[in-house]
Amino acid sequence: MRIGGGLLGRCGDDLAALLGRRRIAVLTDDTVAPLYLDTVTAALEDAGFAVCSHVFPAGEGRKNLSTLEELLEFLASEHLTRTDCVAALGGGVTGDMGGFAAATFLRGMPFLQVPTTLLSQVDASVGGKTGVDLPVGKNLVGAFWQPSFVLIDPDTLNTLSPHFFADGMGEVIKYGCISDKPLLEALEAGTALEDLEQLLARCVASKKSFVEEDTRDTGRRMILNFGHTFGHALEKLHNFQDLSHGEAVGIGMVLACQVGERLGVTPAGTGARVAAVLERYGLPTQD
Q1: Beta-ladder partners of 113
Q2: pLDDT, tens digit (0-9, with 9 covering 90-100), for 151-171
Q3: How are beta strands 85-90 and 23-29 bridged, if at all?
Q4: Nearest Cα to Cα of residue 67 among 78, 82, 54, 49
């Protein structure tokens, strides 16, 4: 893994040293492609890679079996082999689907995560959870498939709208709540964003520690789902349209705290404290 400004334009050299020169299929969506696909393709080709790419429509609504089939058909049409590589360039939806395509095509091939949103950089690109949604619920079909490399360029966050930057802050706040008290305190004080690269590194390190201890999410790693049980239900109720993942998780964290307080297992006032931090970063606290 590497984190640093300007890495997107230099990604070819980093990956050549890791992978050797092989074919790379870049999977991305039609929001990210106009911004970064040419940069990544040029960097890879300059380093000696043969590159093909596929662009699909953006949005959680396209994270389904039909789009997965489209990705697999593309990989087959390009005659990719197990010695080649898939690169998922984009946000969490792209990473989940690109990783799942890599996990299932030819029964598994290497893949790279190149996240371009705050949410995917601090959370979705790390840990190896890949998959798609079904009409009855989110992330019900997938595989654990660890990326060979994660490349995080914080410069890509400059093109995020305030809405989607706030969306990613939902997961950042989650890490402050579950494992990094100094981060939570910095979020409350309004100083956490002063060093964005360090913020990304802290969140990734936090997730890495949980994943290494519990790769398949049967024990301690489940704490990473804080807020997600309620959050996924809210996303489904909104048909994955007008409530983003980070917003839903934020509301879910408040609800989980409130339930804990009522049961007497969570200190009184915890829900209000979490809600105050969410509000500070422009996130809703109730549906």
Answers
A1: 88, 150
A2: 999 999 999 999 999 999 999
A3: parallel
A4: 54
Can you tell me the mean pLDDT for 224-240?
94
Q: Are 27 and 176 in contact (CB under 8 A)?
A: no
Closest to 11 measured CA to CA, from 35, 42, 32, 53: 42
Length of the chain: 287
Rounded-to-integer distance, Cα 80 and Cα 161, Å: 35
The overall pTM is greater than 0.70: yes
Q: Which amino acid is at 75?
A: L
Rounded distance, CA 131 to CA 63, Å?
Answer: 8
> 126 falls in which pLDDT band (50, 70, 90)?
very high
State the average pLDDT for the chain: 96
Q: State the Cα–Cα distance between residues 89 and 117, nearest whole angstrom.
A: 10
Q: Are 64 and 31 in contact (CB under 8 A)?
A: no
Rounded to whole angstroms, the Cα distance separating 226 from 256 reads: 8
Residue type, 247: E
Please name the residues in contact with 9: beta carbons below 8 A apart, sequence gap of 6 or more.
Answer: 39, 43
Direct distance between the N- and C-terminal alpha carbons of the chain, in angstroms, rounded to an integer = 36
Q: What count of other Cβ atoms lies within 10 Å of the Cβ of residue 270?
A: 17
CA distances from 62 to 57, 68, 157 (A): 7, 9, 23
Task: In whole angstroms, give the CA distance from residue 229 to residue 248.
Answer: 10
